[in-house]
Design a protein that fits this description.
By secondary structure, this protein is mainly β. The chain is built from two helices and twelve strands. Strand 6 and strand 7 form a beta hairpin. 26% of the residues are buried.
Length: 195
């Protein structure tokens, strides 16, 4: 799968459910994601782009069912070390405030997305569904080409979220790079509402 596409789907659920023994996390019984929107923010000729992304329902309820489809392409092979710079901002009193990187959540720099993907899905293990069904890769290297995930069903489980991440309006930007060259950029905006 194109890392931009993978990153986007990951951002829908804020990378992955956060697990930590830190007391700053709280079990959220129900969270809603409203007003989900996205756009490419890289150069018009960026090598890696997301072409389509649909997510429903609106609002997205966590825990709950989600339907998503996406397509993207890359004109170059994407291989390690594939860096990702994530900038997360939260609206506070009408101003956008950068959220710091805390326990790898927030505005963080990830040295190598390929390494993270390998940790999530070790070599020799099949890619998770529905990627496996559609023959989409889930580890580096990603060959140049087009990738498409047809409309698929997902279940978003209960999540432990940092207390500051449970309600509010958010903007997120992810910049994909290789050896100081920007390969792609994606911006996502959404609102979180928790019970």
């Amino acid at each position: 799968m194109d890392p931009v596409l993978f990153l986007t789907l990951g951002l829908v659920v804020f990378i992955t459910p956060v697990t930590s023994s830190t007391s700053g996390l709280k079990k959220v019984p129900k969270t809603q994601i409203l007003g989900f929107d996205w756009k490419n923010c890289g150069a018009p000729d960026a090598p890696a782009v997301l072409k389509t992304l649909t997510v429903s329902p609106d609002p997205i309820v966590i825990p709950g069912d989600l339907q998503a489809s996406a397509s993207g392409s890359t004109t170059v092979e994407l291989s390690a070390p594939l860096a990702v710079n994530v900038t997360l901002e939260k609206e506070v009193a009408g101003f956008w405030v950068k959220v710091p990187c805390v326990e790898e959540v927030g505005s963080c720099h990830y040295e190598d997305l390929c390494d993270l993907l390998t940790q999530l899905v070790p070599p020799g293990q099949d890619c998770p569904e529905p990627l496996h069904t559609y023959g989409l890769p889930c580890r580096c290297p990603f060959k140049a080409g087009s990738y498409s995930l047809p409309q698929s069903d997902f279940y978003l489980p209960f999540m432990d979220l940092p207390y500051w991440l449970t309600n509010g309006n958010y903007r997120l930007q992810g910049v994909l790079g290789l050896q100081d060259k920007q390969l792609g950029c994606l911006q996502v905006s959404l609102s979180l509402r928790s019970d």
